[in-house]
Amino acid sequence: MSTLRQMDRFFNPRSVAVVGASRKIMKAGHTIFSNFAENKRRGLFKGELYPVNPHEQIILGFKCYPSLLKIVGEVELAVIVVPAEVVPKIMEEAAAKQVKAAVIISGGFGEIGRHDLEEKVKTISKKAGIRVLGPNCLGVLDPRTGVDMLFLPETKVLTTGDEMITTPRPMSGPVAIVTQSGAFGVSALDYLAGKQLGISKFVSFGNKYDVAEPEMLQYLLHDEETGVILLYVESIELGKAFMEIAKEITIKKPIVAMKLGRTEAGARAAMSHTGSIAGSDMIYDGVFSQVGIIRVRNMKEFFDVGKAFAFQLPASGRNIAIITDAGGPGIMAADECESNGLIVKKFSRETMRKFEELKRVGKIPSFATNLNPLDLTGSVNSAMYETSAAILFEDPEIHGIIVLGLHHTPGLLEDFVDRIAKLSQNHAKPIVACDIGETEMAMFIRSRFDKFGIPAYSSPEDAARAMAALVKYGLYLQKNGSFVQYMKSFWDRTRSS
Amino acid sequence: MSTLRQMDRFFNPRSVAVVGASRKIMKAGHTIFSNFAENKRRGLFKGELYPVNPHEQIILGFKCYPSLLKIVGEVELAVIVVPAEVVPKIMEEAAAKQVKAAVIISGGFGEIGRHDLEEKVKTISKKAGIRVLGPNCLGVLDPRTGVDMLFLPETKVLTTGDEMITTPRPMSGPVAIVTQSGAFGVSALDYLAGKQLGISKFVSFGNKYDVAEPEMLQYLLHDEETGVILLYVESIELGKAFMEIAKEITIKKPIVAMKLGRTEAGARAAMSHTGSIAGSDMIYDGVFSQVGIIRVRNMKEFFDVGKAFAFQLPASGRNIAIITDAGGPGIMAADECESNGLIVKKFSRETMRKFEELKRVGKIPSFATNLNPLDLTGSVNSAMYETSAAILFEDPEIHGIIVLGLHHTPGLLEDFVDRIAKLSQNHAKPIVACDIGETEMAMFIRSRFDKFGIPAYSSPEDAARAMAALVKYGLYLQKNGSFVQYMKSFWDRTRSS
């Protein structure tokens, strides 16, 4: 039985039993069962579905079974959401029922010192050959197959009686999320849903006594939906298995990692959170960089960089061109680029000559600054962005483009986005965008860029850091001779979707 | 004539002439005049208003004058928006008319190499004693007096014919914005308007041949509306005048500065943008820290820190407590605090004892981690946040509190915000908040915190950096013996508003 097939059962099971399913709306077992039931009614979840609970006859129209053993058909996957003390008994029954995989949502094991209980469950599952996610986890969310084990309902009712979206599920898309912290995982879903960025798979490991990063990563390597992997870890087994699979993946798909506990207080908090020693931060830095994992420094960068990889090719070198209609933000981008190891050097003589020619014939403002950043000034219009971007796309010395399109400029309308996007589709050169502002048109411009596959950010520095990740990864691919292969598979993925 | 009275004319003039006012909607002179005209109709702008344009008889119902000299009444302030070549003639007329102050919106002077033209205008204005803002600037926006010189209209019509908010004006509030870059200034307004953060004054200097930072800062020192000054500079005269006034201000009001051009590319861009040499970055660091200016590293931090000072007191020490309902984000906050020089140490024995007692009586979860961060876990409810926060507010060893309230937790409703806010009002200890997510409830929770005067951020790291600024400033005030005085005036400002 291959790892891939084993892992696939968590994301695409033929049959699922929710042990601990409940009619009581405040219970985790209710939310999880009702997620499956609703997705089945919508035709999204196609497997068999069984609620298991000795105290219920029927839940949301489904016949309820007193135990796994009473289910007549096959049960491929058991989602277990009962008190920790009961889990060993359930696992015994799962073994007897020849269940193939289990997700233990319940907490109350190693993370609160109950290593004995965890060991007991582990022994049973190992003996029976049941692959296990958890315990103490959120499990899996797969928007394509309708598997949704999140015990957090999508909405909440406030003290006023108003219902509000609280834990939205993102749409389908290229980002896989692999997280050790369930709570952070849920936040990530909320963030990505709000930013309209789709996910391929979501998996929360919890105590990960059986399935851990290496196997999950291996599965994601072969998952066609997954274009980029966001990996959140507090502690990880940095052994051979992890390093080998990571190396294999990163020549094909970027892994963006957020590893916490880099300070003393952070490490102490990580230890009390997941009960594991964070390890020297420098070791993580070393291993990650050796296997081509892009490490980010904070939450915002985690998502920003993920978005860049979802939409754009890596860069083939460090030379970045900046186009702007606002001097100050151009400087911010230049500063942040160079602080992150990118090069924002003066344009080549040939490119300068082209811009001078554009000035001469009035196609860009005569007082535009063309040193890099190219500052088209507040007199810019959409055609000027297009003409200038075309020159930069064609300049072989430039490896990536940052477009700052501050919409406030009087003569600039939204079609500059369309024009730049059209150019971008004909060039294998990464481009990221920024518009500043938190009201209507700023949001509209950013989402328009996003829709065309140009990741847009709300500050010049965010855009520069996203570009820095595209450069870092591009250099890694080149070093490993896999740049061209990556580009090919990136195109296959993005053109087909 | 005191500087204060001179500067006040830019923000609260008895009479304004807009030279270059126009009926043509695409012209800057139209937008500026119509801003004043509309604000006058609404009763917001209370001064006299005169359009000046030899080619028009009437503009938006106002009699138009062919020149400043033809206006019968006094003209205190002239807003000049005519081609650069015409500005010397207008300035001559302003001198003859005994205009007291002028804002030259027009570009086309030193910034594009026309130092001769700038010198000519300067000579005329100096001789006549006219105080000048600009040239090449956006001028002034004051939501209280209705002075609005922004030539960028609030809305724009897209290629589809749809009208959209593009350059919103923020409401009235405690943040003063002093910016060298007009384009960035406009972005800042868009950002603050969207984040519901109000401004006291907005001033864009441009080439600043006459009025520059020292006088403007002096004015803002005495401006009761201004609680915090956001200062954006590309180059600044770091002379005695600046240092003296900055020192005088920072014991009374925080100045948050963003100074660009810290890298080679950034410095080159800054030089071509405003024609000035950026100077060694380390010199700025030294001067800023000597005079108590809080320097930020990027745009996002600029606004985040401004918001912290608008709402919260500085901290009296470095010891920070973190309360969370999610382990991962708690670690993120701890990491970022310690990376910024804050201390997240274990709670005192007394405070630990109190938390243990709460566990014993079931008032917080028995498996909560109380080392700092205090992790109340996903079993938290609103009462637990309140009880725990009360203990931390009362602990004299803790100087500031970061509340991470991830709303996804099933048992947590919005009233935890109200409960914490109520506690906060009875304690002189700074508190900042975070909720993660970009959909309905996350935004609701953050804006609820904001409304109660607790600045809320969308990532744990942003919250930690905001707290770091409150600590840095608090330590500066203590060193200068002005902490208590600042607290008093902070209360006067925030209680009265």
Can you tell me the number of structural domains of chain A? 2
CATH topology category name of the largest domain in chain A: Rossmann fold
What would you say the CATH architecture of the largest domain in chain A is?
3-Layer(aba) Sandwich
Biggest β-sheet description of chain A: 7 strands, mixed
Going by CATH, the homologous superfamily of the largest domain in chain A would be Succinyl-CoA synthetase domains
Largest interface, counted by CB within 8 Å of the partner chain's CB: A-B, 91 and 92 residues
Please tell me the overall pLDDT of chain A. 94
- Report how far the terminal alpha carbons of chain A are from each other: 31 Å
Q: Count of helical segments of chain A?
A: 17
Instruction: Find the structural class of chain A using helix and strand composition.
Output: alpha/beta
CATH class label of the largest domain in chain A: Alpha Beta
Strand order of the largest sheet of chain A: 9-8-13-12-14-15-16
Identify the notable features of this structure and list them briefly.
homodimer, 497 residues, alpha/beta, Rossmann fold, 2 domains, seven-stranded mixed β-sheet, six-stranded mixed β-sheet, 42% helix, 17% strand, elongated
If you had to describe this structure to a student in words, what would you say it looks like?
With 497 residues, chain A is an alpha/beta fold. The longest helix of chain A is centred in the last third of the chain and has 20 residues, at 460-479. Chain A has a seven-stranded mixed β-sheet with strand order 9-8-13-12-14-15-16, with helices on both faces. A six-stranded mixed β-sheet of chain A has the order 18-19-17-20-21-22, sandwiched between helices. In chain A, α1 (3-11) packs across α6 (213-222), α6 runs parallel beside α7 and α11 runs parallel beside α16 (460-479). Chain A has helices at residues 3-11, 28-41, 87-96, 115-128, 182-194, 213-222, 240-250, 264-274, 281-290, 299-311, 327-339, 349-360, 382-394, 415-425, 440-451, 460-479, 483-496; strands at 15-19, 48-52, 58-59, 62-63, 77-80, 101-104, 131-133, 139-142, 147-148, 155-157, 163-165, 172-179, 199-204, 228-233, 255-259, 294-295, 320-324, 369-370, 374-375, 400-404, 431-434, 456-457. Chain A is elongated and about 85 Å long. The relative contact order of chain A is 0.08. Chain A folds into two domains: 3-308, Rossmann fold (3-Layer(aba) Sandwich); 313-496, 3-Layer(aba) Sandwich (Rossmann fold), CATH 3.40.50.261.
